[in-house]
Structures are given as structure tokens and as C-alpha cells.
Amino acid sequence: MGRESIDEPLVPLQRPTLFLLGINPAYANHDEEFVLKLQEKRLSVSGDDFYINDAAGNPFLHCKGKFFSLRSRMEFYDLRGQLLFIVKRKLMSMHITFEGHTPDESKVLFTVKNSWRTFGSARAKITFTNIDGQETELALRGDFFDRKASVTLGDPEGPLLCRISRSFLNKRYLLTGKDTYYLTIAPGVDAAFMAAICVCLDEKENESCY
């Protein structure tokens, strides 16, 4: 089952499929559970920049936020400084929607479309063309009060791909208002893609506060 009760112990995530899942095989080719820590930079004049590190604290990705009057733009770079993809807020959409584009912005790689939600909850549908060429859909379900979310394959009851948890009222948040997220990613799942989904969730939550 994709959803877990808050009273259930967290068991190690299993590989959800025989094939790699995501948009970039280089970030999906891991055989064990993978943990990322995402921290909003404390002092950022350009927008919501994120430190994205692995469990040992080593840099994993760079996310640079650039915000304009009508839409946000988030650029994801590898450790060599190569642009991997660009995430932009889609204009003229009934629901808050983000699109991931190729570096030259000629193609949409994935879409994160938020749906109506009850107070304190988050719901989104993620669509993309998988590494193997198959059109694929993911579901995101979150609970603000439990400070957690999950990404599953297909629907909310599908195989669990990623757990997202958020530090709550820690010293850093109280001083800066900046969030810290922890992602636990299943083997064979694109970790960079999951990080992008988490950043979209953060941006959506920020917009919901205004």
C-alpha cells in the first residue's frame, strides 16, 4: 500500500518496478534507499534557492530560484554546473501548476498539477514520459499538520516512491522562516526528479500562505 499510518513504523522502501523510474537515468540508477536533505538558503535575494545534499552532507544538486511578477522559475544544476532542467509556474491555469522544461525550454519534461484540497492537506498529480518512453503518472499526498507527504506510482494506493518530511518550528525556521525537507527515495527512482517535486510542493505551500 502506498499510504502509511502515522502509527506504523517506517519500513525501508523497496524498488517499485523492474525499470528505472524518472526523467534522468543517472539519478535513478541506485540500488538502495537514498536520502536527501533540502534546505532553503538563509540569505537569497534571487528567490527560493535550495541546498540539496545527500545523507552524509555532500552536495547533490543546486537549485536556484528566480522570481518574477507573474511566475516563478527554478533552475536545477548538477555539481559540474550543467543545467539539468527548469521548473516554471504555468500561467492561466485553474489549479497551481508547475512544468519542468529541458534546458533550452523546447520541451516539457513533466507537469505537477495541484488539485483542490481540504485545509491542511496537499494533493497533486505528476505526469511525465518515463526513462523507458512510457507515459507515467504519480500521485502526491501531503498533510501539513503531520508535516509529511508521499509520492506514489499511479494513484495514492500505488507503490511508494518517496517520503517527504519537514522539520517543524526548529531554531532555523523560527529565525529565518526557511524550511528544511528530508526525502527518502526508493531504489531505482530518480532522486533529482523527487527533489524537484518537493521544491514545487514548497513553492505551492508558500503561495497558499498569501
List the helices and strands and how they pair.
Blueprint lengths: L33 E7 L9 E5 L4 E9 L4 E6 L5 E7 L7 E5 L6 E7 L6 E9 L5 E9 L4 E6 L6 E7 L4 H6 L3 E6 L5 H18 L2
Antiparallel strand pairs: 1-2, 1-12, 2-3, 3-4, 4-5, 5-6, 6-7, 7-8, 8-9, 9-10, 10-11, 11-12
InterPro entries: LOR (IPR007612), LOR_sf (IPR038595), Tubby-like_C (IPR025659)
Family: Belongs to the LOR family.
List keywords for this structure.
2 helices; 210 residues; twelve-stranded antiparallel β-barrel; mainly beta
| CATH-defined topology | Porin
What are the segments in which pLDDT stays under 50 over at least 5 consecutive residues?
Answer: 169-177
Oligomer: single chain
Please identify the top-level CATH class.
Mainly Beta
Q: Determine the CATH superfamily.
A: LURP1-related
Question: What string, H for helix and E for strand, traces the elements in order?
Answer: EEEEEEEEEEEHEH
The biggest sheet, with number of strands, parallel, antiparallel or mixed sense and barrel status, is: 12 strands, antiparallel, barrel
* Total tally of structural domains: 1
Strand order of the largest sheet: 1-2-3-4-5-6-7-8-9-10-11-12
- Count of DSSP-assigned helices: 2
By secondary-structure content and strand pairing, the structural class works out as: mainly beta
Based on DSSP secondary structure assignment, what is the total number of beta strands?
12
Family: Belongs to the LOR family.
Pfam families: LOR (PF04525)
InterPro entries: LOR (IPR007612), LOR_sf (IPR038595), Tubby-like_C (IPR025659)
